[in-house]
Amino acid sequence: MRVIALAISIAVLQVAQSLPPTDDQQFAQFGTYLESLRRQAGIPGMAAVIVGENDVAWQRSFGQQDVERGMPARTDSLFALDTTTQVFTATLVLRCVEQGKLSLDDPIGRYDAGSADPGTTIGQILTHTSGTPNNLTFAYRPERLESLKAAVESCAGVPYRETLGLTLEQMGMMDSLPGLDILQIPRSASGFPDARETGRYTGLLDRVATPYTVDALGHSSPSRYSATTLTPATGLISTALDYAKFDLAIRKAIMLGADTVAAAWRPPLGRNGQPLPHGIGWFVQPYNGETIVWQFGLSDNTSSSLVITVPGRRFSLILLANSDGLARSFGLASGDVTVSPFGRLFLGSFVR
Q: pTM for this one?
């Protein structure tokens, strides 16, 4: 089964490499190959969006968001972002840095007295690094981001979830949920969520894709979301089209200054002087003369996501799925997006 899948993936990539420059035909062929990969991965439902310089350039949905009810997936279906949530946390932190309220060099113990490693800096948490500035090492540990909740709250003066919820509204991301349990939390001192927000969130909860476990034979069965609350590392629920708004807000320097984004997308160096895999909130790596900025989300047996940005070409890919098939088997935590057949297809099709 694995040999057959690998052979198909290689064939798909070889065809993709012969595609003409980006046009409607290329997008259509890309969608065809993407559907082939989705079926190989056993993903019940998936949404895909390619964001151009100023707007969505292409969008397509695949499969079903609820198999039992026969509901097709849509590009405005809500999916769990899982650990892709961390790019939003990075954005909140970097905005506080721009305002002079936080520093990436601040030890996290200044804000989180209960941190297991209080001497670790905010910057190290966001880059998944440890050690001294001259001897940094990389280890992908999203659980460390939990301490950033206290730092963001110190900066904003309101709960982390409220800060993110209001930020989503500022970007026009009205189809996004700051946690599946958003209706179960007490209203904050400042009134979040208010009646208007509660009504909107109620409607959105009915549109969340059903998560699935997929066995070795490709048979799917309904699962349960393991991340039911919002944390700095996981728990955000969104749509591919809503994420496109965030992508544009970052690339067009609306949410953060251009210099801040450039610094976030510049990975730190290890002791050998070579770039480490992760920048501030995003993985960063070279590919065919371009800088590739990306992140993935994964919750075993429930959901997955993959977002890839090519800053030099001014476009991005957004993939959201209701199983773990976008990420589980590929070892993406090592920091190489080309180990993913989905990543290889996109890069081989559009970054040549």
A: 0.92
